[in-house]
Amino acid sequence: MAKKITFVQGNEACALGAMYAGLDFYAGYPITPSTEIAETLAVTMPAAGKKFIQMEDEISSMCAIIGASLTGNKVLTATSGPGFSLMQEALGYAVMAEIPCVVVNVQRGGPSTGNPTHVSQGDVNQARWGTHGDHSIVALSASNHQDVFRMTVEAFNIAEIYRTPVILLFDEVIGHMREKLIVPEEGEIPLVARLRTSLKEGVNYHPYLPREDGRLPMSDFGDVHRFNVTGLYHDMWGFPTDKPELVQDLLRHQINKIENNVHKMTFYKSYFLEDARTVLISYGSAARSALSVVKQRRNRGESIGLLELNTIWPFPAELVRECTQHADLVAVVEMNVGQLTQSVRLAVGDQQEVHLINRVDGQMIIDKDIKKILRILQGRGI
Amino acid sequence: MDVKYYLRERFFPHLWCAGCGHGIVLNALIRAVDSLAIKKKDMVMVSGIGCSSRISGYVDFHSLHTLHGRALAFATGVKLSKPSLNVIVPMGDGDALAIGGNHFIHAARRNINITALVMNNRTYGMTGGQFSPLSGVGTKATTAPYMNIDREFDTVELASAAGATFVARTTVYHVKQLQSMLKKAIKHDGFSVLEVLTQCPTYFGRKNRKGSAVDMMNNYRDTTVPIGSDKKKENPELIERGIFVDKNLPEYCQAYADLVERASA
Fold it and tell me: What is the distance between the alpha carbons of residues A203 and A206, in angstroms, rounded to a whole number?
């Protein structure tokens, strides 16, 4: 079969990826610059017999997908900064109750209403710490539509494997830019189905008792096993508890299932890093410009490379350390005041200074912006 | 009937105070479900946060104890994704109509087949007796020590105006009526709202000198009348009990199924 080649917006690529992953249920609320995801799914989902609902706000959208996940569905919502803020409480619920779900945040300028139609990467740390309480989270990113599609599918897979919410952290440029997308054939990207309990009716099913491999088989609402789901700390039955040892065990379990598997969910791309003395680290649309600079400079013989992170959270600290240990200069290219730079600094420690190359005026950072700052950092004048 | 068949005894003792009306609601609910012969595996109870919301843990249904005010939003996801399930959403007055007010009116507007049970004790019990949007002017609460100046919602009028296709009110004194209304509300094909006046002797009662739980229940007997009663004409202060709205309009999940047919044609 010939490959299906399309020319689409990033938001459409995300919607296509979600359908490929087996999306069953979408709930959302219109917001720039993510709306095309909902608009695309409003056409494709009903035609495929899937459920699409426009809710009254982003709070209810996030709640509705959690409810729908519990009846055994793959679920999605998509939003941008202000809506993402509204979703934070329910996102924490999905962490606590261990509900597989995927949340897209097509980033725009904030805080508040901010710069709705312009690009930003200002929600990196909101994705990490937006909901209250100690927790871990998974957030993926992409700089081109092939990766938008791929990461969307991986988001659904990770959500199912680890029973966790997964955030797709795109940005306005990626969301609205049009470029080629070769839609993968069926089976080309493996899909993870929901792990359901094999226990028969009448046998006690514990919804929160991990198997030896750490995974928790689920049972759909409406199926024979009836259990309680709560945002309170709970025991293996899902019943609320405040017993100190159970509280601590559950908190540790929820964090460890992510942090102990960082390597399994780290997606990245490395460009010319083998001998790079200058290492750029970037993600999302900023990584396109960083790659352009790296290619231009490589052509002129400079030993410069790029580490593009597709996994933002959990932060792949080991990978970043390995890629930067022989570098003379490390710089993070991002469109915020240094949100990921902080994590890179923590990862590389005192050995090395980590510089920030950024732009925070709502305009996409381009190769010229990066080169200008690189010249200064490399002591080559302004 | 065997009430215990429907209870999760592991969860007991329940956390409600002595004299609380919520247990009467639980009892009536179980009897209603039993008499409708609905299988436990086809029942989902979705609740929010508050004393009333703990009811979902006590019943042996699929139970989803969620966030303050958001139960109807979670329930919408459950119901639309699997319309064959019976979804009941018990809420307190603050849960349903303060923090959850927006979800309440929109669920009513959609006419999605969910049973919303507003257990109205006119206070926030779980947090210790603050005033709610149903406390009313002149009542006292820990956050209204000089008497409340906030006007109250009328749950029935609000639900009716928002488009609920079944709207009823009763009290925990009128247990038989409560049971029969619950049955009707669950059977109704559309969004149904049942407001149940239920006493909180611990906070609302104490702050407002309403006496014991028994006094408060007797008060429901004395201050409520059936819809259309002559007494109400003489004394407009009396609260009407009964079914205010019961009509058939397109139900949301069915409308969605029709939409899917159009889309795939």
Answer: 10
Interface check B257 vs A, CB under 8 A: no
Give strand pairing partners of A78: A104
Q: Can you list the domains of chain A with their CATH numbers?
A: 1-265 (3.40.50.970), 268-377 (3.40.50.920)
**Closest to A282 measured CA to CA, from A173, A126, A156:** A173
Residue of B nearest to A233 (CA): B65
User: Which pTM value belongs to this model?
Assistant: 0.98
Question: Angle at Cα A317 formed by Cα A311 and Cα A318, nearest 5°?
Answer: 110
Tokens of A109: 């300028």
Interface test with B, best of A70, A132, A241 (most B CBs within 10 A): A70
**Helices H / strands E in chain B, number of each:** 11, 10
Question: Which structure tokens are listed for B239?
Answer: 């609260």
What are B121-166's pLDDT values in tens digits?
999 999 999 999 999 999 999 999 999 999 999 999 999 999 999 9
A66 touches chain B (CB under 8 A): yes
Q: Select from B11, B62, B256 the Cβ nearest to the Cβ of A221.
A: B62
C-alpha A321/C-alpha A342 separation (Å) is 14
- Write down the ipTM of this complex: 0.97
CB-CB under 8 Å, A89 with B67 = yes
Contacts of B114 (CB under 8 A, 6+ apart): B72, B75, B76, B79, B87, B88, B89, B107, B191, B192
- Domain ranges in chain B are 3-264
Cα(A332)–Cα(B148) distance, integer angstroms: 56
Both tokens of A229, joined, read 């789901």
Kind and range of the H or E run holding B195? strand B192-197
Query: CA-CA distance, A343 to A339, in Å (whole number)?
Result: 7
Question: Is domain B3-264 given the CATH code 3.20.20.330 in the classification?
Answer: no
For the stretch B67-126, pLDDT in tens is: 999 999 999 999 999 999 999 999 999 999 999 999 999 999 999 999 999 999 999 999
